[in-house]
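job 3f2a | input accepted
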Amino acid sequence: MLLLSAFEWLVRFQHMDRRWIFLGMAIAIAIPMLFPFTSEFSVDRSVKDAWQAVEDLPEGATVYISADFDPGSRPELEPYYRAVLHQLFTKDVKIVSATLWPAAPPLVFPIMEEIAEVYGKEYGTDYCFLGFKDGKELAIKSIGENLPKTYPVDFQGTPIGDLPVARGFKQLKDFPLIVLVSAGFPGIKEYVLQVQGQYELKMVGAATAVSGPDYIPYYKAHQLAGISSGMPGSAQYEKLVFLEHPRENLVHPERLLGIEGVNVLNLGHVFIVLLIFLGNVAFFTTRPKGVE
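job 3f2a | predicted structure (292 res):
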C-alpha cells in the first residue's frame, strides 16, 4: 500500500472512510487540551475598550454585573466572566451581581465565590449576589428604577439593607459601570433599550459569537463602551488581563479557558481547510481529461 502512486492515493482519498475524518478532528481538538499553549493573536478594539472601561474604575468603586448565561453558553462566556472578576478584585472594586436567567445562579455564583476567596474578599462587604429575577424587560426596567424594591433580599434571603456592599445604590445609574455577560434574551439588547438611554449608563458586555454582531451598532453608537464576542473575545480579554497587563496582586489561574478554546477552534478549522484543499486537489487531478 505504501508503494501506491500519488494518483492512486488521490483516488483513494476521495473514497476515504468518514471515520478517519472524525478521528483527525478528535486529534485536532485533543492536542491543545492535552498540551496547552498560547498562540499569537491580536485584540479587537471593542474588547480593548471593554477592558479599559474596567481599568478606568477607581479603587473602591462598585459595579453591577448581570450574569445572564447558562450551561449551553458557558464555554464562550465563562472565560470572560472569570477574567473580569479577576480584574475587578485586583483593583479592589466591589461587585453587586444578579441574573435574569433561571439557570444561571448555580453556575455563576460558585465562580464568583471561588475567585473572591482567592483574593480574600468577604461576601456582603466586597461582593454580593442578588439572585434570579423573572420578568425579562420589565425586570430590567424595575432594576433601573429601584434596585432595592426589585431585590429586597439576596439569593440567600438576607435583606439587601444588611449588605454593606449594596447600601446607597438605589438605581442602576448609581453604579459607574454595568457589566453584562449575556447569552441572549433577555440580555444586552434589552438593557440598552430599557435603561441605557434613559439613565445614560456606561455599560460593557460579553456576548456569544452568534449574537455579538448584533451589538456592534450599539458599540459604534457609544451605547456600549466595549463588547466581547464569543470565544475569541473571551480569549482576547484573558490576554489583556493575564498576559499583557497583569497586576502585581493578580493570582494567575491554572488554565486560561478562553485561549485554550480558541486553540481548539483554530486547529479544528485548519484541519477542515486542509481537507477541503486536498479534496479539491484530488478531484481536479483524477477526473478524466475533457470532463468539464
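job 3f2a | The chain is about 50% helix and 10% strand.
job 3f2a | closed
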